[in-house]
Amino acid sequence: MPKVSGKKTSKAGKGRTGRGRKAAPPSLSERISGFFSRLMHVVVTYTAVVAVGLFLIVALMLFAGGYFVNFGGRLVDLTKDMTVAAGLKVTKITWAGATQTADYEVMDALLNDSEGAILNQSIVHFSPARARAKVEGLGWVRDAAVTRLYPNTIHVSISERIPAALWEGEGLLHLIDRDGVVITQVGGHQYTGLPLITDTTDPSRANEILAVLGSHPQLAARIATLRHRGDRRWDLGFRNGFVVMLPEDNYAAAIEKISVLESEGKLSDTMQKLDLRLPNAVYYVPKNAS
User: Fold this and answer.
1) Rounded to a whole number, what is the distance in angstroms from the first to the last CA of the chain?
2) Domain POTRA: where (predicted)?
3) DSSP readout, 48-89?
4) Going by CATH, does the domain composed of 163-286 fall within 3.40.47.10?
């Protein structure tokens, strides 16, 4: 039997190996396409660098000119102009409840801190809360409500303070309400029917006794002065000169008894002074006593 060799050779097989085969040169169209591809890459890169550079230069110029610092304000101004152009602007101001508060005081309180008068300004940018705080800062105003009525009206509702007494402080007379809040300065000929609070630097100290006297209007009408003694207690001075020295504690009960006796004509008509300072003793001075 003939001997069979384990190696097989083939001339055709030698020609198929990658080692012995050269790559074909690129065609003309491929070379042109590659050139333009590289060119576009360079152009895009250069354009991006230039654009970033220009952006940084412009941003630096705007920052140096303060544009970014005022950007928020300019945006607000732009929106204000737009709302005004749309007809949303203040052309009417109304208010109710102001009997003692002057019209000009209300108008001054509604002034915008930066733009002055609010007429013809944007109603959208008007701040009711800020305006309310300024209106409530007026002496006579106890409470206020400020409302935007679209498209063009601002309405103010006012609740005023009720005078309860006069307070003498630093040589001047002031009108105060039942809470001891100063309403306004007055002259000696004004509000003479109200009691005069003296001998205290803080009129709010009288709020409790004013509340008690408010429950006894007939008695309160006869009181001329409320003198605060030693920052501890009160003396009631009647209009006919009768004086009641109230105790430091539980003076509300004492005022209750005084109100009953006074209504019966047993106090100011017969006495000059009544001392109730001690809890277990009462001293009095009869009228016309020597």
Assistant:
1) 174
2) 88-161
3) HHHHHHHHHHHHHHHHHTTTTTTHHHHHHHHHHHHHHHTT-B
4) no
- Chain centroid offset of residue 256 CA: 42
At residue 39, the pLDDT reads 65
Q: Is 252 exposed, middle or buried (0-12, 13-18, 19+ CB in 10 A)?
A: middle
Rounded Cα gap, residues 70 and 22, in angstroms: 69
**DSSP assignments along 27-50, one per residue:** PHHHHHHHHHHHHHHHHHHHHHHH
- Residues in the chain predicted with pLDDT less than 70, given as ranges, are 1-24, 26, 28, 30-36, 39, 41-44, 46, 48, 52-53, 55-76, 290
The predicted model scores a pTM of 0.69
Amino acid at 205: R
The residue extents of the domains of the chain are 87-160, 163-286
Measured from the Cβ of residue 88, the count of other Cβ atoms closer than 10 Å reads: 18
How far, in Å, CA of 135 to CA of 99, rounded? Answer: 14
Angle in degrees, CA 184, 186, 189, rounded to 5:
155
Q: Write down the pLDDT at residue 252.
A: 95
- CATH code of 87-160, in short, is 3.10.20.310
Residue-level pLDDT at 254: 94
For residue 43, what pLDDT is reported?
66
**Residue from 240, 250, 257 nearest 277 by CA:** 250
Among residues 261, 165, 147, 255, which one has the least CA distance to residue 204? 165
* 100 contacts 177 by C-beta, under 8 angstroms: no
Distance (Å, rounded) from C-alpha 96 to C-alpha 288?
A: 53
* pLDDT for res 83: 84
